[in-house]
Fold each of these.
Amino acid sequence: AQKITQTQPGMFVQEKEAVTLDCTYDTSDPSYGLFWYKQPSSGEMIFLIYQGSYDQQNATEGRYSLNFQKARKSANLVISASQLGDSAMYFCAMRENSGNTPLVFGKGTRLSVIA
Amino acid sequence: GAGVSQTPSNKVTEKGKYVELRCDPISGHTALYWYRQSLGQGPEFLIYFQGTGAADDSGLPNDRFFAVRPEGSVSTLKIQRTERGDSAMYLCASSLWSQPDTQYFGPGTRLTVL
């Protein structure tokens, strides 16, 4: 079964607007971490934001915020004030348990920012 | 400081050949991960090292795939008898043992098997 589901293969957003990229996850572990990565056409995975399962507050990093809804098992990424340079693939990922365990990634959403 | 580096950036080989892909983690990072990313997919876990030992190799697809990290820093992913289905981007990531939530990725090696 899919552990990370990203239902939007592609999204368009107007420059300077906000956009939400959806992510739902599936785990029975009480302790887990949720991540968003950006992958530009160059291929490198760039870490954007992290949310721990016990964190009370939604994570924010600059223009990125994570809308964490634990009961719905949802971890949507919100990008505010979109820029042309935000055009890339975006991957949601989860790490179950604590410690050094591998990430499980979704299939990604391709975001295109239009001027 | 220097990030994770991977060499070569591109590798084209013929079916049946042997290839080695190299990963240089960030200095001091004891945890090292290999992932494989096929076209249109997210990365999939292959193997994870803690120091010199493979802590989890459950993601290796078959016995043609093998990875080593003999001195606890540089790692080499080895693929024997390559098949066309092995064509993918191979990504390496590293993290500090004390900061597992931040895996730093390298630029990847794009492997093409003809």
Amino acid sequence: QVQLKESGPGLVQPSQTLSLTCTVSGFSLTSNSVHWVRQPPGKGLEWVGAIWSGGSTDYNSALKSRLSISRDTSKSQVFLKMNSLQTEDTAIYFCTRSYYYVMDAWGQGASVTVSS
Amino acid sequence: IQLTQSPSLLSASVGDRVTLSCKGSQNINNYLAWYQQKLGEAPKLLIYNTNSLQTGIPSRFSGSGSGTDYTLTISSLQPEDVATYFCYQYNNGLTFGSGTKLEIK
């Protein structure tokens, strides 16, 4: 059974760094890519970035300068780090499994609020 | 590629045939998927590659389209279909539409 679960702090202060972990089960990180997608309160979905099965990464061009995605295949974990957080980064952050760019399984989401 | 969904809000009756639209700013080459998101839940994949039904999704959902214009159709609306529906293209970059909120009249 494919599962993804996000974890991380619910509250981050402005200008600080967000660190999220996606722990997966039921599939291998070396066979599937994992993406991060975020959703601000009451708004639509925004692709954040991805780590591909081979380990390379791609980022949303609007976030690229602040963003890093990495993984630990031995622990089946994917990590998102985003620095210089602002209130506009307040959102639910989802990690998803992707097969040929189609996101077919999603985590429950991690709510992140940027506030002092 | 930017995706424009219409309408933004759709109200229909149980049993109605419902059509949701997604238009791309460029040719999407059929690399289009549809997601359903119920309140407080993660999105769920319904359709991929324009018209391929994801495993476990009821057959009342179908997709069609080509070029820049795509459609999600629900043949007979059910109460459990109340949700927001997003289209998603993966032909050139990865982008989502702004969503259509579907409610029961």
Amino acid sequence: GIQVEQSPPDLILQEGANSTLRCNFSDSVNNLQWFHQNPWGQLINLFYIPSGTKQNGRLSATTVATERYSLLYISSSQTTDSGVYFCAVPPGWLDSSYKLIFGSGTRLLVRP
Amino acid sequence: ETGVTQTPRHLVMGMTNKKSLKCEQHLGHNAMYWYKQSAKKPLELMFVYSLEERVENNSVPSRFSPECPNSSHLFLHLHTLQPEDSALYLCASSQDIGQPQHFGDGTRLSIL
């Protein structure tokens, strides 16, 4: 099955710093989502981005489908950005796109 | 307000108890999902419903029994659970199968 790898696994930032999180996937996909899980377990949908670039405030995401990776940019990080960031893709181009395969996440800690 | 509400937020139960988790979505979506998140493991898809019909059952033990009485409500009935079933159970919904998923806050379940 498709493999989803996220890097780095852990990241510590000083408040105000910028960062880039990466998601690699081993097969072509027609759907990719980024999620943020805060320290209380709430999972928030950040981006639905099968290709191209999207921006939402301090966050932006780029997916290069042909090269099988996606990047999540966090600028001017804040302590509320702490938590785990997941990317998720369906199991394959021909498989049902409702099945999301999650990466193991990047655990981010932003220090004041 | 995420649009997807899960109750209870926390549940502690013995192995012989019977309890139910509830999920309600206020987004007018047609598809609903149950996920399990165990410590140090990626999210696992358990069940998928589309227009109240189950479309996916990922080899989940029979001690977990889903119910979808209408497109706005999803239940997960629990009975004779095991300690390894302790986890965060997340509900999600999407407009239709394959569309971006929006998650509830989860129910943190502890089995004594």
Amino acid sequence: AQSVTQLDSQVPVFEEAPVELRCNYSSSVSVYLFWYVQYPNQGLQLLLKYLSGSTLVKGINGFEAEFNKSQTSFHLRKPSVHISDTAEYFCAVGGYQKVTFGTGTKLQVIP
Amino acid sequence: GAVVSQHPSWVICKSGTSVKIECRSLDFQATTMFWYRQFPKQSLMLMATSNEGSKATYEQGVEKDKFLINHASLTLSTLTVTSAHPEDSSFYICSAKSGGLTDTQYFGPGTRLTVL
């Protein structure tokens, strides 16, 4: 069984400030972790993924995430956000075939 | 990058009618396609997984006779919502992947279904 917890449903942050979106997971099999972004009325776009290797993963649009096995976390970070980063962000854990999504975190960038 | 399209992007229908949504992988062969449903302000709920040429595997609680899934080719899967009711109104998203366990799922843009 696998599950994902995104503790923050909404995160407001001022433009050019850093942001961290939190994600904790549980999985009984090998862990593959993903972050997706969803803009209004659109599908999901992959930001980054962790399969193995380096625990610090760099993605598109300046985002990065760190896999922490001991804390079962995969938090997403960006050092300086832009207005265009306003969207909903989903953390997901993958196992055999299936990917389980968290409930999402809405990032609101304030000008 | 891999592109997945969905058609239509939105549809409005009367209660009791059936609606078909298409999901196409445009530049790769999708051995597996997934159908999700997303309610307002909620996460994606996996409805079913389909492999080309075989019957779809439905998640618990999803009525297979109501949500008919066909994956007839490596680039096309269809979801038919039969005898639609207002409670079926939702955002339906498909995704596709070409390979094995760790392959990325590529998502379509979604279809907004409104049943009157």
